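Checklist before submission:
- one chain only
- standard amino acids only
- sequence pasted in full

Submission:
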Amino acid sequence: MSIDKNKPKDYIFATTRQRVDGIIDKADSALDKQVAGNHYKKLKIQPVEFAQKNELNYCEANIVKYVCRHRDKNGAEDIKKVIHYAELLLELEYANKD
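Returned file contents:
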């Protein structure tokens, strides 16, 4: 199956299931690479994979990203980013709905 022939909605990122099915070789997966550190690679499900599969928007995806890495990277600074993105999400999604 060629990725070029798939419709965007049918495209699935390189997951364990795909690797087992032989669609994408483990050595070819971008999920097996990380620039600077290993705080995402060591997770059972990487934030980018979770966000993509669950169709999260920018703020939601960043909340997941920062909450997953705070213990291994920037500590309290990452939690402050989680709070900031939650505030942005609240303002952008719900400001005029009260």
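Reviewer check: Residues 76-94 form the longest helix (19 residues).
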